[in-house]
Amino acid sequence: MHTDIPLDEGYLNMDLLRFTTAGSVDDGKSTLIGRLLYDSKNTFDDQMEAVEATSKKRGDEHVNLALLTDGLRAEREQGITIDVAYRYFATPKRKFIIADTPGHIQYTRNMVTGASTANLAIILVDARTGVIEQTCRHAFIADLLRIRHVILAVNKMDLVEYSQERFNEIAEEFKRFSSRLDNIVGMTAIPISALHGDNVVEKSAKMPWYEGPTMLYHLETVYIGSDNNHVDARFPVQWVIRPHSDEYHDFRGYAGRVAGGVFRPGDEVVVQPSGFSTRIKTVESFEGPIPAAFAPLSCTITLEDEIDISRGDMITKVNNPPKKDQEIEAMICWFSETTNLSPNAKFYLRHTTKEVKALIKDVRYKVNINTLHKIEGDKVMGLNEIGRISLRTSAPLVFDSYHRNRNTGSFILIDAQTNETVAAGMIL
Amino acid sequence: MEEERTTYQVNHLAQLESEAIYVLRETAAQFERPALLFSGGKDSIVMAHLARKAFHPARIPFPLLHVDTGHNFQETLDFRDSFVEDLRATLVVAYVQDSIEQGRAQEEKGPLASRNGLQIVTLLDAIENNQFDACLGGARRDEEKARAKERFFSHRDDFGQWDPKNQRPELWNIFNGRKHHGEHFRVFPLSNWTEMDVWQYIKSEGIELPNLYFSHRREIVHRNGAMLATSEVVVPQPGERVETNAIVRFRTIGDMTCTGAVYSDASDLEAIIYEVATARQTERGARADDKRSETAMEDRKREGYF
To answer: What is the CATH number of domain B2-197+295-303?
Structure first.
């Protein structure tokens, strides 16, 4: 990738923001996304024709923008969202990836999935009902997955006469709750009507008292550059490149994606878990050697000395070393509909590019995700439950806390019989 | 840190490229016999280009698989052969014609017949015969509503079927490619790319494309709201409107019987990017195969389509 490509009205050189949306069934989440797409001119005529035709067929009063986001047959028939769907739109300032997830409690795992790659979460509330249990659950999950930026979208302002008092009341209540969460550094409350388009893309004429940004403006301008860790050098080796050709006879490159920090030729590095050290010879790309690689770039690293390195190893530096241990403490969300998690269960554990076996030692507590209270003594976790566990791995993991680095602090558990992904884990 | 943070910003194309390369390498590492589905269309060309970058300076460690309906544009085939030679890659071709002759696939009857659906049989046979355990596809989530729910690593049962309501959750960038014997995966490195991203990337990387993507003159026939190139497999029927010298280009390239042209005088990448930015129809809006019903793509995907 050439980073010096000429700017074409900004279109070639945009920044990327990933966000997730959470709301209860009738909070108007699909309508909001449809509104964002429609008002930012990211819908097409054939899509709109299909939506208008379906709206008419169903007897909807307005053109139902929510239909823009319904994908599967069952969803169209039942008017619900089943799974995580990904949407894309762009403005001249930014490209956006939306992880659109259903908000009901039975879909907690989908919310966790959508949140795992997001920089920002939009949490919707209905202005008539305000902050409810679900709102707190959504905020808790955003925080658990270390989403730094949250927009509280107070929707359906048209149904409360666009009342400033009502909006302030809800925003205050949410702030009181979210101040108990650690990871959220920026919270912005915006009064909107997704149905009529107020403060979504266009500033609302009905709420002159609101002086903050519209939702799109905020999405376009919120600063997310610090979400990657550029301090702790972490390079999980994905694949060893050995061309076996005359031209590259002795070439041995370690391919991967930088998970943290910066790697430059000449840097002294330590390979984990072996602990051998050497220096970086070159940082390679297809176009040739590059001066530095940092998260989230993919590259290939060659080293001065021949060391036995394979997939699952991690290239790190002397400063800020990662932890290395077989005993892990983590928060997990349990995903399986068919089995429960309990102590002594065994799984495959995937962490960066490494796979090991894991034995669950203890369920320390579960979290009541509506009240945030700890539940102690109950050692069995079922579908959509979140809790803290301890586990032991068959080989040492090289890791950071999830709080410090999302890439090296996350893992999944896989059921050895079904091969299903049964849990998402965040190392403490 | 104030100063450093600006240095470490990468634009959206660099992020998408890095993600796609990561997925390509994961596929090579997690599967024994992957294959890259190559149609000669721009998305599969971009995917093959990314595969070359991912494993450079070694060759791409898996073959390219082309499912040939027998109804290809000659330009596509010519392009495919020179592209594969340039990549020094291995090409495997599976012919729909063979499936028909073996009685494995039934050809649609009539002048409006399409072999698009038959590709499913040929593809699944090719996967089984070559024991491929992962097929890399160039599909993007922005293309179609059923594809919006697709995973990067998409599990297929031993009948090759997709079960959209029972997909594995996909968190962070940790991909679970574990499977039982006989099952396989479809892997989509371009999941997060949009049509615009693909075109911008083609431009910034200087990737060569078949001429069909650029404005040219050809004879077309209007059929079911689409403009099809006339050929021995697309013969104008009585009452259909034919234009002998239309100025058109193709936004997608697939089987000739269902790939519609659009009027366009966009003859270079600049012009195409401008056209895409101002387009009022979706890219697949010209695809007759998606117009068969509202959930046509979902239905074909369930059965094993790309």
So the answer is: 3.40.50.620
Length of chain A: 428
Cβ within 8 Å of residue B253, ≥6 positions away: B39, B40, B41, B42, B73, B76, B210, B212, B213, B259
- Asked if A14's CB is within 8 angstroms of B11's CB, the reply is yes
Comparing B295 with A97, the larger pLDDT belongs to: A97
Per-state percent for chain B, helix, strand, coil, to nearest 5: 40, 15, 45
Q: Has residue B303 got a pLDDT over 70?
A: no
Q: Report residue A87 as tokens.
A: 């949407």
pLDDT attached to residue A8: 46
Are B67 and B96 in contact, with CB atoms under 8 Å apart? Answer: yes
Are B117 and B67 in contact, with CB atoms under 8 Å apart? Answer: no
Rg of chain A (C-alpha set): 24
Cβ-based contacts of B176 with chain A (< 8 Å):
350, 412, 414, 419, 421
The secondary structure of A344-402, three-state, reads: CCEEEEEECCEEEEEEEEEEEEEECCCCCCEECCCCCECCCCEEEEEEEEEEEEEECCC
Cα dist. A271→A57, A305, A326, A396, B45 in Å? 62, 11, 17, 13, 36
Q: Which stretch of DSSP H or E encloses residue A78?
A: helix A73-78
Average pLDDT over residues A79-107: 79
Helices A164-178/A133-144 angle, 10° precision = 50
CB contact under 8 A, A113 and B57: no
Amino acid at B260: G
Report d(CA A36, CA A25) in Å as an integer.
19
Return the closest-CA partner of residue B138 out of B293, B239, B23, B240: B23
Three-class SS state of B85 = helix
Q: What per-residue confidence (pLDDT) applies to A181?
A: 82
Nearest residue to A227 via CA among B141, B10, B16, B152: B10
Numbered ranges of CATH 3.40.50.620 in chain B: 2-197+295-303
Are A88 and B28 an interchain contact pair (Cβ–Cβ within 8 Å)? no
With CB atoms and an 8 Å threshold, state whether B18 touches A294.
no
Phi, psi torsion values for A9, nearest 5 degrees:
50, 30
Are the C-beta atoms of residues B38 and B64 closer than 8 Å to each other? yes
Question: Where does the pLDDT of residue A347 fall: very low under 50, low under 70, confident under 90, or very high at 90 and above?
Answer: very high
* Per-residue CA distances from A73 to A113, A405, B233, B296 (Å): 22, 38, 33, 10
State pLDDT tens for residues B276-289.
877 766 665 555 55
Which residues make beta-bridge pairs with B128? none
Are residues B22 and A353 in contact, defined by beta-carbon separation less than 8 angstroms? Answer: no
- For residue A93, how far is the Cα from the chain centroid? 21
Do the Cβ atoms of A238 and B279 come within 8 Å? no
pLDDT tens digits, B81-133 = 999 999 999 999 988 888 888 888 787 777 667 777 778 888 888 988 999 99
In B, which residues are within 8 Å of A335 by CB distance?
Answer: 169
Count contacts between A and B (CB, < 8 Å): 202
Contact between residue B281 and residue A44 where contact means Cβ atoms under 8 Å apart: yes
Domains of chain A, CATH where assigned: 15-227 (3.40.50.300), 234-316 (2.40.30.10), 323-427 (2.40.30.10)
Alpha carbon distance A148, A175 (integer Å): 15
Which strand (E) or helix (H) includes residue B100?
A: helix B96-101
Q: Which helix (H) or strand (E) holds B84?
A: helix B74-87
Respond yes or no on whether the N-terminal peptide bond of residue B57 is cis (omega within 30° of 0). Answer: yes
Angstroms from B77 CA to nearest CA on chain A: 27
**A191 preceded by cis ω (within 30°)?**
no
* B274 touches B128 (CB < 8 A): no
